[in-house]
């Protein structure tokens, strides 16, 4: 009877260790660079987005060893500059926030794990009323866009990895509720990132 009990304890311990080693989730924090291409349209020639740094938080859940679902939030603060027929050097200093979800496909080559992702998200642009904002009455914009990216994770241990990625989102240019800032065009907002992920 004691042998059977010890065998049961050993089997239960082995199952617990195996389950603990099977990480199905991870959370990461990254530094991002934020930039975008100039956009011309209607009365705007051009709209220019200044480059800045920000922070990205992501959560991934493993559906299979190669497929994950991802949720993202990022935050940055920078300026949008507009040259128009009626306004020269129009500028809005704004907070930019991204909320997005994506499907991630991953491969494994020893410690290297390249991945690609595609998804959808919204960028929220909120004017900051300071000396960097020259337009009175600038309003918040929420623009939906298509997210895509590719990168690689390097496994430091079963629990930690370093992750670098090129990320982009295609969405309408923000106009902050000003008719003379409208372009009716889409632009590419780029947010390359590097950070660390914890698997649990």
List the main descriptive attributes of the protein structure presented here:
signal, Porin, mainly beta, 1 helix, eleven-stranded antiparallel β-sheet, 200 residues
Question: How are the SSEs ordered, and which strands pair?
Answer:
Layout: H1 2-21, E1 25-36, E2 39-41, E3 44-49, E4 52-62, E5 67-84, E6 90-106, E7 112-127, E8 141-155, E9 160-172, E10 186-190, E11 193-199
Antiparallel strand pairs: 1-4, 1-10, 1-11, 2-3, 3-5, 4-5, 5-6, 6-7, 7-8, 8-9, 9-10, 9-11
Signal peptide: 1-20
Protein name: Opacity protein
Domain Outer membrane protein beta-barrel: 9-200
- How does the overall form come out from the CA principal axes? elongated
Q: Counting H and I runs of at least 4 residues, what is the number of helices?
A: 1
- Based on secondary structure, the structural category is mainly beta
Amino- and carboxy-terminal Cα gap: 36 Å
The name of the CATH architecture is: Beta Barrel
As a percent range, the share of strand residues is: over 45%
Question: Which percent bin holds the helix content?
Answer: 10-25%
CA radius of gyration: 22 Å
Number of distinct beta strands:
11
**Biggest sheet record:** 11 strands, antiparallel
Order of SSEs? HEEEEEEEEEEE
Low-confidence regions: 7-20
- Domains, number: 1
Under CATH at level 1, the class stands as Mainly Beta
Keywords: Signal
Protein name: Opacity protein
InterPro entries: Beta-barrel_OMP, OMP/PagP_B-barrel
Pfam families: OMP_b-brl (PF13505)
